[in-house]
Design goal:
Helix content: 10-25%
Strand content: 25-35%
Distance between the termini: 11 Å
Radius of gyration: 30 Å
Number of helices: 11
Largest sheet: 8 strands, mixed
Shape: globular
Length: 718
Amino acid sequence: MLRRATLVISTALAVVLASSPAGAMAAAQGGFSPGAAGAGDPYLPLDGNGGYDVQHYRLEIGYSPATDVLTGVATITSVATQNLSAFNLDLDGLTVRSVTVDGHSARWSRDEGELTVTPARGVARNATFSTVVRYGGVPQTIDDPAIGTSGFVHTTDGMVVAGQPHVAATWFPVNDHPSDKASYTIRITVPDGLTAVSNGVLTGRSSRDGRTTWSWDARQPMASYLATATVGSFDLRAYERAGIRYWDAVDSELTGPVVRPRTGDRLLYSRSGAPGYKRLSRTIDVPADGAQLSFWASLDTPDPGFFFVEAHTVGSDDWTTLPDADGYARDYPGSLCDSIPGTHPFLAHYLSVGPDGTCVPSGTTGRWFGQSSFNYGNEYGRWTVDLAAYAGKRVEVSLSYVSKAPGPADDTTERTGVYLDDLTVSTGAGNTSFEADGDVLDGWTTPPAPAGSPANPNTWTSTTVDELPSAGSVIDRALGRQPEVIEFLADAFGPYPFRTAGAIVDNAPLGFALETQTRPVYSPDFFAYQSQADSVVVHELAHQWFGDALTVRQWRDIWLNEGFATYAEWLWEEHDGGSTPQETFDYYYREFPADSPIWQLKIGDPGPAEMLSPVVYSRGAMTLQALRVTVGDAAFFDILRTWTASRAGGTVSTDEFIALAERISGKSLDEFFAAWLYSTTKPTAPGVRRGTDQPGRDLVPEPRFSSSLRPDGQPMRY
């Protein structure tokens, strides 16, 4: 999971004992007794329950977004681990209508989040039994200031289910602790036109009486917090790569066109591609009392990409850029000066490098006014440009979009470009909305790039809505790399542990991404930048090994999830042309001095309030890189592959990982793990002289992207 959260342990709940005479007598005789009201996790003592082991959940869910009402029938197949007179399930808020055990009515009672079930007769140890709970109501959203919005989250067109550590109990009765994994069949019935997405394989879809039932099957063991039942208007994409079946569900609000024409059926589109210098030009005879130019613009420009209005007196080289009355064009040029020497020398008319090396918004003939959505947001609005300075003259005006290849410090996200519509000139000459009326540009032209610039890869074109790029282009590119990411991670960690994969991107008020088994849930906020989008996809897919296939037995070992997934990002960054894991390690080791609070947290036992702290993520990854240096690459990756192969489908602990690392490496690692997981002081990095903070490199680059921390201790982007 990716988020910053503080968890609060709930208050203790009473355990309701078996109330039937037979059960009470058996309990008194020591034969049967109630199962525990918690799974025994010291961090969350009332999460989960004791006395039984769930094998399978069959969930029949009905949901109506108009009312937010959920109805459910949960059939829970379990094996008793003791002679049970009663047992508990976790369920928050919803109304229970009936409970049966093995087909017989059972007594039940509620105490806050505990549903205590007393069967008509006791359940013998090792017996398989079936519990059916019928329930319903409006599910509760978890909205704690410390952890944000999670659980059953209502959206404008449905709902999304995602959260950690206890989310399942908000929408079905469950043994809600990761130590009790089970398989799932989830059938979700929703109004026709909506899509219901869950884990595993889509096994069927059927419609009746205006409602559609979506059937999903997750046969491999899954922790309860990883189950989802998400409903909305989705673009559901199914495909197969290398024997793995993918289902990607992207909210249709995120897959529409970037912008729509204001009038008519068409608008003018710059198209993408860098470097480029694309002009839309026209000569205007400005009356003695002046003139105005106006148009509507929508910008989706990259870091080194700007839109601006250029002008010069015909016959003169007095080029300048013009401000607009609405304040969209500003005098900030970003890194465009970098392109003057070799890419776009024409910009020297407006830009120059100052004595201190900064880019100055003035040049040989004019001043700079431009706009970049990278710097100011995805600007959309009406620009009004005053041509009074050219009163009584002929002026050539160009609406221009310039871009260059990103430099080392620039964001590399590929943006779609600039969109124009309803262009008007107060003189009446050149008014156009770019319709296919025989003269699309109405006298405007698209000349080539100015002298010195490379030829444009393409230029302005009149476009209809169905030809426009998707607003979710970054999402598409990131999800499109999932097969590549899985292949890369499989090489490092061993075979992908499931038969299916994919993603859910819902336009919902989530502040995190979650490793929902085989189908991670992502907030759309992660897809603002390509590097960030790719990184979060790597993180959540790495969790399919570490967190999903291998699940922590107790929450104190959460570093086995988050540290490993963060380290996968470090490996991917190197693979994708960025910093090596050692360079990333060196950066954090250098940036956080010995007195930094991040060294005071025992990440191997961080406590319930800090178990999802970003410190656990970053320092967990640092621990793995330090282990790699300590034992060598061959032993390190042997440890990881053996860890995933030997524990797949089960639950794990830190002690088990340490024992495996020692066995494979042949080294005693007690002191190493004590320093990196349980110490409250800054450990000495492998290969670094004791008493120093520096890891040997004089210059350590900042990682290109990371889900971890900045030196101020805050999350790095997400």
